Amino acid sequence: MNDKQMQSNYIRIVGKINSNLEFSHEVFGEKFYEFYLEVPRLSDTKDLLPVIISERIINDISMEIGNYLVIDGQFRSYNRYEDTSNKLLLRVFVRDILVPDEYELEEIKKHPNEVFLNGYLCKETKFRTTPFGREITDMLIAVNRSYNKSDYIPCIAWGRNARYCEKLEVGDHVKLWGRIQSRKYQKKNDSESYDTKTAYEVSVTKLEHIKTENNRKKDEDNIELE
After folding, report:
1. Measured at the alpha carbon of residue 95, what is the angle toward residues 91 and 99, in degrees to the nearest 5?
2. In sequence order, which residues have a C-beta less than 8 Å from that of residue 172 and are 6 or more positions away?
3. Strand, helix or coil at 63?
4. Are 46 and 36 in contact (CB under 8 A)?
5. How far, in Å, CA of 92 to CA of 49, rounded?
6. Dist. CA 76–CA 92, nearest whole Å
7. pLDDT tens digits, one per residue of 156-197
Protein backbone atom coordinates (compact mmCIF):
# COMPACT_ATOMS: atom_id res chain seq x y z
CA MET A 1 0.00 0.00 0.00
CA ASN A 2 1.50 3.37 -0.88
CA ASP A 3 1.88 6.18 1.66
CA LYS A 4 -0.97 8.25 0.23
CA GLN A 5 -3.47 5.43 0.64
CA MET A 6 -2.17 4.67 4.13
CA GLN A 7 -2.79 8.29 5.11
CA SER A 8 -6.42 8.33 3.98
CA ASN A 9 -7.87 4.87 4.66
CA TYR A 10 -6.31 2.43 7.11
CA ILE A 11 -7.77 -0.39 9.18
CA ARG A 12 -6.40 -3.08 11.48
CA ILE A 13 -8.68 -5.83 12.75
CA VAL A 14 -7.85 -8.84 14.91
CA GLY A 15 -10.13 -11.84 15.15
CA LYS A 16 -10.84 -15.43 14.22
CA ILE A 17 -12.06 -16.80 10.91
CA ASN A 18 -15.82 -17.43 11.02
CA SER A 19 -16.53 -18.82 7.53
CA ASN A 20 -14.95 -20.66 4.63
CA LEU A 21 -13.45 -18.79 1.69
CA GLU A 22 -15.90 -18.07 -1.15
CA PHE A 23 -14.90 -16.80 -4.59
CA SER A 24 -15.76 -13.11 -4.99
CA HIS A 25 -14.34 -11.86 -8.30
CA GLU A 26 -11.32 -11.84 -10.59
CA VAL A 27 -9.28 -8.87 -11.84
CA PHE A 28 -6.62 -9.37 -14.56
CA GLY A 29 -6.23 -13.00 -13.62
CA GLU A 30 -5.99 -12.33 -9.87
CA LYS A 31 -8.69 -14.11 -7.87
CA PHE A 32 -10.27 -12.57 -4.79
CA TYR A 33 -12.11 -14.43 -2.05
CA GLU A 34 -14.50 -13.38 0.69
CA PHE A 35 -14.88 -14.60 4.26
CA TYR A 36 -16.06 -13.33 7.65
CA LEU A 37 -13.82 -12.43 10.57
CA GLU A 38 -15.22 -12.47 14.12
CA VAL A 39 -13.76 -9.42 15.88
CA PRO A 40 -14.23 -8.98 19.65
CA ARG A 41 -15.45 -5.75 21.21
CA LEU A 42 -14.33 -4.50 24.59
CA SER A 43 -17.69 -5.73 25.87
CA ASP A 44 -18.75 -9.38 25.58
CA THR A 45 -20.25 -8.84 22.11
CA LYS A 46 -18.52 -9.38 18.76
CA ASP A 47 -18.61 -7.90 15.26
CA LEU A 48 -18.81 -10.20 12.25
CA LEU A 49 -17.02 -8.34 9.45
CA PRO A 50 -16.86 -9.24 5.72
CA VAL A 51 -13.31 -9.46 4.35
CA ILE A 52 -11.98 -9.62 0.77
CA ILE A 53 -8.53 -11.13 0.23
CA SER A 54 -6.38 -11.87 -2.84
CA GLU A 55 -5.17 -15.37 -3.55
CA ARG A 56 -1.68 -13.88 -3.73
CA ILE A 57 -1.78 -12.81 -0.08
CA ILE A 58 -3.05 -16.10 1.32
CA ASN A 59 -0.03 -18.16 0.17
CA ASP A 60 0.66 -20.82 2.82
CA ILE A 61 -1.56 -19.28 5.50
CA SER A 62 -4.13 -21.66 6.98
CA MET A 63 -7.60 -20.21 6.46
CA GLU A 64 -9.44 -22.76 8.60
CA ILE A 65 -12.43 -21.62 10.65
CA GLY A 66 -11.35 -20.67 14.16
CA ASN A 67 -7.83 -19.56 13.27
CA TYR A 68 -6.83 -16.06 14.44
CA LEU A 69 -5.59 -13.42 11.99
CA VAL A 70 -4.28 -9.87 12.16
CA ILE A 71 -5.39 -7.94 9.07
CA ASP A 72 -4.09 -4.59 7.83
CA GLY A 73 -5.92 -2.99 4.94
CA GLN A 74 -8.66 -0.58 3.92
CA PHE A 75 -12.40 -0.25 4.48
CA ARG A 76 -13.79 -0.18 0.94
CA SER A 77 -17.17 0.33 -0.67
CA TYR A 78 -18.58 -1.31 -3.81
CA ASN A 79 -21.69 -0.33 -5.77
CA ARG A 80 -24.35 -2.93 -6.51
CA TYR A 81 -27.20 -1.99 -8.84
CA GLU A 82 -30.47 -3.34 -7.48
CA ASP A 83 -34.13 -2.33 -7.89
CA THR A 84 -33.30 0.81 -9.96
CA SER A 85 -30.90 2.18 -7.32
CA ASN A 86 -27.30 1.76 -6.19
CA LYS A 87 -26.68 -0.18 -2.99
CA LEU A 88 -23.49 0.26 -1.06
CA LEU A 89 -21.53 -2.87 -0.11
CA LEU A 90 -18.79 -2.47 2.49
CA ARG A 91 -15.83 -4.82 2.82
CA VAL A 92 -12.48 -4.95 4.59
CA PHE A 93 -9.89 -5.16 1.80
CA VAL A 94 -6.75 -7.00 2.92
CA ARG A 95 -3.34 -5.48 2.18
CA ASP A 96 -1.33 -7.53 4.65
CA ILE A 97 -2.03 -10.47 6.94
CA LEU A 98 -0.32 -11.96 9.99
CA VAL A 99 -0.86 -15.16 11.92
CA PRO A 100 0.07 -14.22 15.50
CA ASP A 101 1.63 -16.59 17.99
CA GLU A 102 0.01 -17.01 21.40
CA TYR A 103 2.01 -14.23 23.09
CA GLU A 104 1.49 -11.75 20.24
CA LEU A 105 -2.24 -12.50 20.15
CA GLU A 106 -2.83 -11.55 23.79
CA GLU A 107 -1.15 -8.19 23.24
CA ILE A 108 -2.71 -7.44 19.87
CA LYS A 109 -6.23 -8.36 21.03
CA LYS A 110 -6.14 -5.35 23.38
CA HIS A 111 -6.81 -3.20 20.30
CA PRO A 112 -8.73 -5.51 17.94
CA ASN A 113 -10.49 -2.96 15.73
CA GLU A 114 -8.94 0.34 14.64
CA VAL A 115 -9.85 2.56 11.68
CA PHE A 116 -8.54 5.88 10.36
CA LEU A 117 -10.27 7.77 7.53
CA ASN A 118 -9.34 11.05 5.86
CA GLY A 119 -12.08 12.27 3.54
CA TYR A 120 -14.99 14.56 2.76
CA LEU A 121 -18.61 14.63 3.88
CA CYS A 122 -20.71 13.71 0.83
CA LYS A 123 -24.25 13.60 2.29
CA GLU A 124 -26.14 15.85 4.66
CA THR A 125 -25.72 14.74 8.25
CA LYS A 126 -28.65 13.25 10.17
CA PHE A 127 -28.94 13.90 13.89
CA ARG A 128 -31.11 11.60 16.00
CA THR A 129 -31.67 10.49 19.58
CA THR A 130 -32.01 6.85 20.61
CA PRO A 131 -34.84 5.61 22.88
CA PHE A 132 -32.24 5.61 25.69
CA GLY A 133 -31.46 9.28 25.08
CA ARG A 134 -28.10 8.86 23.30
CA GLU A 135 -27.34 11.49 20.67
CA ILE A 136 -26.11 10.20 17.30
CA THR A 137 -25.20 11.85 14.00
CA ASP A 138 -25.07 9.73 10.83
CA MET A 139 -22.53 10.73 8.18
CA LEU A 140 -21.28 9.45 4.82
CA ILE A 141 -17.58 10.09 4.18
CA ALA A 142 -15.95 9.91 0.73
CA VAL A 143 -12.33 8.77 0.85
CA ASN A 144 -10.18 9.04 -2.27
CA ARG A 145 -8.61 5.90 -3.70
CA SER A 146 -6.21 5.22 -6.59
CA TYR A 147 -7.35 5.44 -10.24
CA ASN A 148 -9.82 8.27 -9.55
CA LYS A 149 -12.03 6.08 -7.37
CA SER A 150 -13.53 6.80 -3.96
CA ASP A 151 -14.84 4.75 -1.07
CA TYR A 152 -18.07 5.88 0.62
CA ILE A 153 -18.04 4.98 4.29
CA PRO A 154 -21.05 5.36 6.65
CA CYS A 155 -19.96 6.74 10.02
CA ILE A 156 -21.74 7.54 13.27
CA ALA A 157 -20.67 10.03 15.93
CA TRP A 158 -21.89 10.03 19.52
CA GLY A 159 -22.53 12.59 22.25
CA ARG A 160 -20.67 15.87 21.91
CA ASN A 161 -19.10 14.65 18.66
CA ALA A 162 -22.64 14.04 17.35
CA ARG A 163 -23.71 17.57 18.23
CA TYR A 164 -20.62 18.98 16.51
CA CYS A 165 -20.95 16.81 13.39
CA GLU A 166 -24.61 17.79 12.98
CA LYS A 167 -23.41 21.24 11.89
CA LEU A 168 -20.95 19.99 9.25
CA GLU A 169 -21.76 20.71 5.61
CA VAL A 170 -21.46 18.57 2.49
CA GLY A 171 -17.89 18.87 1.22
CA ASP A 172 -16.30 19.49 4.63
CA HIS A 173 -12.91 17.82 5.14
CA VAL A 174 -12.64 15.54 8.17
CA LYS A 175 -10.21 13.08 9.68
CA LEU A 176 -11.67 10.49 12.00
CA TRP A 177 -10.64 7.55 14.14
CA GLY A 178 -12.84 4.72 15.38
CA ARG A 179 -13.81 1.11 14.79
CA ILE A 180 -16.00 -0.83 12.37
CA GLN A 181 -19.20 -2.16 13.89
CA SER A 182 -21.89 -4.45 12.55
CA ARG A 183 -25.54 -3.81 13.35
CA LYS A 184 -28.67 -5.86 12.67
CA TYR A 185 -31.86 -4.12 11.49
CA GLN A 186 -35.26 -4.95 9.99
CA LYS A 187 -36.29 -3.88 6.47
CA LYS A 188 -39.74 -4.32 4.95
CA ASN A 189 -39.79 -6.26 1.67
CA ASP A 190 -42.28 -6.35 -1.23
CA SER A 191 -44.45 -8.94 0.52
CA GLU A 192 -44.91 -6.56 3.48
CA SER A 193 -42.88 -8.81 5.78
CA TYR A 194 -39.51 -7.91 7.27
CA ASP A 195 -36.03 -9.17 6.42
CA THR A 196 -33.14 -9.07 8.87
CA LYS A 197 -30.14 -7.28 7.38
CA THR A 198 -26.71 -6.22 8.60
CA ALA A 199 -25.31 -2.71 8.34
CA TYR A 200 -21.62 -1.85 8.68
CA GLU A 201 -20.40 1.55 9.80
CA VAL A 202 -17.51 3.28 11.52
CA SER A 203 -18.23 4.25 15.11
CA VAL A 204 -16.24 7.47 15.61
CA THR A 205 -14.18 7.95 18.76
CA LYS A 206 -12.20 11.00 17.63
CA LEU A 207 -12.78 13.53 14.84
CA GLU A 208 -10.81 16.45 13.40
CA HIS A 209 -12.50 19.04 11.16
CA ILE A 210 -10.01 20.52 8.66
CA LYS A 211 -11.57 23.96 8.36
CA THR A 212 -8.90 25.36 6.04
CA GLU A 213 -9.71 22.89 3.27
CA ASN A 214 -13.08 21.75 1.97
CA ASN A 215 -14.78 20.51 -1.16
CA ARG A 216 -18.23 22.08 -0.77
CA LYS A 217 -18.74 22.94 -4.44
CA LYS A 218 -18.74 19.34 -5.64
CA ASP A 219 -22.07 17.62 -6.22
CA GLU A 220 -22.91 14.85 -3.75
CA ASP A 221 -23.09 11.30 -5.13
CA ASN A 222 -26.46 9.58 -5.44
CA ILE A 223 -25.91 6.57 -3.24
CA GLU A 224 -28.61 4.80 -1.27
CA LEU A 225 -27.47 3.12 1.94
CA GLU A 226 -28.82 -0.37 2.50
Report:
1. 100
2. 120, 121, 209, 210, 214, 215, 216
3. coil
4. no
5. 7
6. 6
7. 999 999 999 999 999 999 999 999 999 888 887 777 788 888
